Amino acid sequence: MPNLVDPPQCIEQAIEIFTACYSPNDQVYSHSCLWGDFNFCLNGLFEYEVEGQLHLAPPSYGLWIPPYTEHNSHAIDEQPIHYVAIRLAPELGRNISAHTEILSVSPFFRALVEETLKAKDHASLKMYRHLLWVIYDQLQTTPKHQHYLPQSHHPILQPLLQHLRAPEYFQLSLQQCLTTTQLSERQLLRLSQNELHMGLSEWRNRAKLLYAIQQLKHGVSIKALSFALGYQHSSSFIEFFKRYTGKTPTQLRD
C-alpha cells in the first residue's frame, strides 16, 4: 500500500467517514473544505453545484471534490437520503484527482463502506485501519468521469440534448431523434465526443436512468416505466437498469 501517511499506522487520522440523513429538498449551503471529499448516496439522488457547474450523482456514482473547492448541494429525491462523505487529508487526496470528478460506486465499494462504518465502533483498530486502506485503494483505481450527464453550449448540440432528455421523446429511437439535425451521424459522434466525452447513445441512456430513478421513487410501476422509456418488454428495461446501477428497479425502489 502507498506510504503517504507518516506513519502509515495513522491512516485513521487522514481519512474520515461522515454519514447523514437528508430529507427531501434539504440543502447544504456553499462552502469549501481543507480536505478533499468523496460524496455519494446509499440511496436517492443528490445534485451538487461545484464552482458554478451542476453535477448529478445517482446511487451507482459519487462526486470527488478537491480541497478548497467551493460547492453546495441539495436532495432532489422524494424520500429521505442516506448520505456518505469520505474525507481525505490533502496528502492522500492528491492521488485521487486535482479536479472535480464523478467516480463509479460498485456494489463492493458500497458494502465496503458499510462494513467500515460498523468496524469503526466494534472491530479492532487494526481491522479498521485495514478497511480504510482498502477504501483508499478503491478510490484511486475506480473509473472516473468528468460529469455524469455533461452539458454543452454548442449551438447544434445544446438543443439536441434537450430533445434527447425530454421524457416525451424517450419512446423514439436515437436515429429518429437525430433527424432534427442536418449533421451526419459521424459528425454528431465526433461533436459529442469532443463536447461530452461520450457518445449520444450513452448520454441518452444516462438521461433515461436519472428519469427512471425519479419515477420509481414516485411509485410508477416498472411496466409503465418500461413502456415510457421505449422498451417493449419489462425484462429489457430491468436489464438496462441493473447494468447501470447494479440493482433491479425493485431493489432500488425498496
From TrEMBL:
Signal peptide: none annotated. GO terms for molecular function: DNA-binding transcription factor activity; sequence-specific DNA binding. InterPro entries: AraC-bd, Homeodomain-like_sf, HTH_AraC, HTH_AraC-typ_CS, RmlC_Cupin_sf. Coiled coil: none annotated. Residues 154-254 form the HTH araC/xylS-type domain. PROSITE patterns: HTH_ARAC_FAMILY_1, HTH_ARAC_FAMILY_2. Keywords: DNA-binding, Transcription, Transcription regulation. SMART domains: HTH_ARAC. It holds the Pfam family HTH_18. It comes from the Bacteria. This is AraC family transcriptional regulator. It comes from Acinetobacter cumulans. The lineage of its organism: Bacteria, Pseudomonadati, Pseudomonadota, Gammaproteobacteria, Moraxellales.
